Amino acid sequence: MRITILPVAALVLCAPACRQSGERERAPAAGEGATAGDRAAQIARGERLVTLGGCNDCHTPLVMGPNGPERDTTHFLAGHPQELALPPAPELSPGPWIATMAGTMTAWSGPWGTTFTANLTPDRETGLGNWTAQDFIATMRTGRHLGKGRRILPPMPMEVLVKYTDEELGAVFAYLQSLKPVKNRVPAPIEPKTAAAPAPAAGSAVTKKR
Amino acid sequence: MVAASLGLALATGGVGIAVVAGATHHPEGAERVVKGAATGVRRTAPGSLRETGLYADWERRQIDARNLAFVPQYPLWTDGATKRRWIRIPAGAAIDAAWVDAWEFPVGTRLWKEFSFGRPVETRYMERTADGWLFAAYVWKANGSDATLAPEAGVPASVEIAPGTSHAIPGEIDCRTCHDAAAPVLGFSALQLSSDRDPRALHAEPSAQGAVDLRNLVERGLIENLPARFMRQPPRIAARDATERAALGYLHGNCGGCHNPRTSLGTLGLTLSYELEEPALDAIATTFDRASRFLPPGLSPEAGALRVAPGAPESSVLLARIRSRSPSVQMPPLGTQVVDERAARLIETWIREAPARAADRIARQPQPRRGDRP
Predict the structure, then answer these.
(1) How far apart are CA B136 and CA B33, in angstroms?
(2) A204 exposed, middle or buried (CB, 10 Å; 0-12, 13-18, 19+)?
(3) Distance between CA B323 and CA B334 in Å, rounded?
(4) What is the predicted pLDDT for the residue at A36?
(5) C-alpha pair distances (Å), B262 with each of A98, B176, B257, B368
(6) pLDDT (tens digit, 9 = 90+) per residue, B232-269?
(7) How far apart are alpha carbons A101 and A104 in whole angstroms?
(8) What's the CA gap between A106 and B253, in Å, rounded?
């Protein structure tokens, strides 16, 4: 796969992510007693919210095809491809250019460090397969994993997502859980070089097998 | 959308994003509406600390006598901050302690916690309203002349506490991250207020003048329905030895607020609180030789990772996360930016000595006699 590192003057590329659903029609909530029809309607609503919300912009990698960049359907909403090892992000000179992104749009680098978009498919080991709807809603509501853990990092547009209602987030989650699981372990974020505390070294003692 | 996110990342110091939707900087002293947890009815947090009822005489900084000082035996580490805490229970009301691990506080309950780094930096405030808990933080001026309501998103960098590291005053969502609906009040509980205090508790603070404990709160009628056994025998962690007691106490005070069966993290099956209702060493049962769901950076999933590897602190993810201040690794994930080195040493010792402790447990169990049925 050919990767191009682009300065993010091209944030306009993310314009689709700025679209938001203006709709407010009621979709049935998930839960006991919901019929198959209710469930299908909830998933359909979730698909629409995901599409209009631009989740694919960053969570489905772009590959270069005969007609230019196109979505890699084998990694649909599966985040940054694990097999795609990237060189360190380029260092930018002081000035207005502050961030870069990989041509896949699944890896971003800026003052917050380098981040890789998450696997949203229901794979139990590498995606959201072990999550409950409550886990997902708590995460989106707070910007922290499971509502209490580490922060969701840029460029995830949390300031918009926290505005979603529980019902909307429940529909998004129902749709994500209906996807084909993709086994794709996304790399952990890399801290900025200026971070005060170093991260544990890769392959450190915590990796010791017992 | 993404551009806005990037902008916020810069505005908040470049290492994270302010997650508060529509966060705006509020002028000092301005009132801010706070969303109640129960009904969504919006309440108003006072614009300054002096309006919260903490002080009887603001000019002399004299605490209102209705506000009772308390000192938890296992305090939360906040990068070495010194703290003072008070609670006010409304007249004629009492805390319902029937569920000993999850007290129900009456409407009108107020709590304050003052954080100092050489001087008071912030005072956090929470109030039980009819619509849920209200949270606010008040930022002290450097000269101590006033303390005003913090912006909704908090103050990511207030005073420098170590070279290049500043204390972060929490935003409202940060408050609710730890003080969630299932466990809103932390540090004011039967175990924390027990008169049987752990002499080896880390960062133990001297008792404040007039500080209340579990027994005198019950005797004053401010706690009701506490199971009688906790009056006969004050709550205490039933550990094998002093090191284990202090370690489990530290985990209870610093991790158990989130990692207990009542919060949204209950599905992790990781209990670091000490539950008095059914006393058991959950912090051992749910960590020792248990696979870690979190994989530290660089770790291959095939290599395996254990929450705690008994006898091998260097292989224990729990300790690695306590020792880290990498934003994506550290535990707790917020509220601290400086490693608690004493705690790291205590937990390291506890893990290293675990096999010997386990062997001692087995040795002390009654041995079957010859002829006993298996």
Answers:
(1) 10
(2) middle
(3) 14
(4) 86
(5) 42, 15, 9, 39
(6) 999 999 999 999 999 999 999 999 999 998 888 888 89
(7) 8
(8) 39
Query: Global pTM?
Result: 0.80
The answer to whether the Cβ–Cβ distance between A110 and B14 falls below 8 Å is yes
For tokens 């284990």, the residue is B244
B4 contact residues in A (CB cutoff 8 A): 157, 159-160
Q: At residue B155, what is the residue type?
A: V
In A, minimum Cα distance to B166 occurs at A196
**Among the partner residues B5, B327, B330, nearest to A159 by beta-carbon distance:** B5
Cβ contact A196–B305 (<8 Å): no
Nearest to A160 among B1, B165, B268 (CB): B1
| Beta carbons of B301 and A125 less than 8 Å apart | yes
What ipTM score was computed for the predicted complex, to two decimals?
A: 0.71
Residue A107 near residue A101 (C-beta atoms within 8 A): yes
Q: Answer for the pair A5, A84: CB distance below 8 angstroms, yes or no.
A: no
Q: Hunting for tokens 């095809």 — which residue is that? A: A65
Chain A, 37-96: which have a CB under 8 Å from a chain B CB?
54, 57-58
Determine contact: A163 vs chain B, CB below 8 A.
yes
Gap between the Cα atoms of A38 and A152, Å rounded: 31
- Bigger pLDDT: B13 or B149? B149
Nearest CA in chain B to A147: B177
A9–chain B Cβ distance below 8 A for any pair: no
Helix (H, G, I), strand (E, B) or coil at A1: coil
* Separation CA B272–CA B250 (nearest Å): 9
Residue from A50, A56, A136, A148 whose CB has the most chain B CBs within 10 Å, to mutate: A148
Assess contact for B292 and B317: CB atoms under 8 A: yes
DSSP B294: S
Decide if A72 contacts A57 (C-beta within 8 A). Answer: no
Residues B17 and B145 sit within 8 Å (Cβ to Cβ): no
pLDDT in tens, B23-62: 223 333 344 444 444 444 445 899 999 999 999 999 999 9
Please name which of A123, A209, A167 lies closest in space to residue A25, comparing C-alpha atoms: A167
Of B16, B299, B330, the CB nearest to A206: B299
Q: Do B328 and A189 touch (CB under 8 A)?
A: yes
Q: Is A181 left (phi over 0), alpha (psi -120 to 50) or beta?
A: beta
Please answer whether residues A117 and A186 qualify as being in contact, where contact means their C-beta atoms are separated by less than 8 angstroms: yes
Residue of B nearest to A158 (CA): B19
Number of H helices, E strands in chain A: 5, 6
- In angstroms, rounded to a whole number, what is the distance separating the alpha carbons of residues B264 and B271? 12
